Amino acid sequence: MDSAxxxxxxxxxxxxxxxxxxxxxxxxxxxxxxxxxxxxxxxxLDLTSQSAVGAFFAAEKPQxxxxxxxxxxxxxxxxxxxxxxxxxxxxxxxxxxxxxxxxGTLKLIFLGSSCIYPKFAPQPIPESALLTGPLEPTNxxxxxxxISGIKMCQAFRIQHSFDAISAMPTNLYGPNDxxxxxxxxxxxxxxxxxxEAKVNNTERVVVWGSGKPLREFLxxxxxxxxxxxxxxxxxxxxxxxxxxxxxxTIKELAELxxxxxxxxxxxxxxxxxxxxxxRKLMDSRRLEELGWKPKISLKDGLTDTYxxxxxxVVSSKH
Length: 318
Description:
Layout: E1 12-15, H1 20-31, E2 37-38, H2 50-60, E3 64-67, H3 75-80, H4 82-102, E4 107-111, H5 140-160, E5 164-169, E6 171-173, H6 186-199, E7 204-208, E8 214-219, H7 220-233, E9 240-242, E10 247-249, H8 250-261, E11 266-270, E12 279-280, H9 285-290, H10 298-314
Parallel strand pairs: 1-2, 1-3, 3-4, 4-5, 5-9, 6-8, 7-11, 8-12
Antiparallel strand pairs: 8-10
């Protein structure tokens, strides 16, 4: 990304730069030589405050905005704090998108999630599946907020010709992921469990379900690359799916994590536990036709993520 529209000196506000996605975007921009990044931690700028966000944009006037900030969590958190999930995400999006337009931002990209799609969407899920059926009830509060963000970008484009675009990534993993024992997603949860089993010489690791469901994973560094690609190459009304296009069963994933971690014990599948959705895959042909493809294989990505886990999560405990 370095065309006339994106000089290395361009001022770029990465909202949510400490999160999984935002930190990857900053790594990518730094590696490409962008030296005018505008970054604010939550304590420095409360994105849920309209007045604070307005004052920030009035002072900084960023040329480009990458909106990765969001309140995220698993099923338990969504069920326990639905008001927080819908309110905080709506506030962040509304404040940032409105202020970006008001204070002359040239282009904004909004990041959503694959949970915006109906529970029984066709597989692979095309962008056109949006709003064609009921959502998964467990995270509808978050999904409704994210759908509103897509629609807000579209509305500002239609009414004000504001160059706001949206990208919807599949399941993500990588450095700065959440490895919490209770509320992490399947991939970091497996990494942690196999690591702890290895360290404790545990003979077997029990994994819920049959291992048959199919899932798609994208390394967050690939997503960061796709975000910058879209900023430079896409200015359409419709949101764009960002996936790897490669499916893996949970069983294959567990075996691969076991190999990467170096665990030599046994995997036991507890088929009395629920499997969840049998298949969840994004249709990313629109992005592929624009000329972008992911580069990081699942094995290489897992190896990289495990290294980060050892250096940043395990070492911080000692």
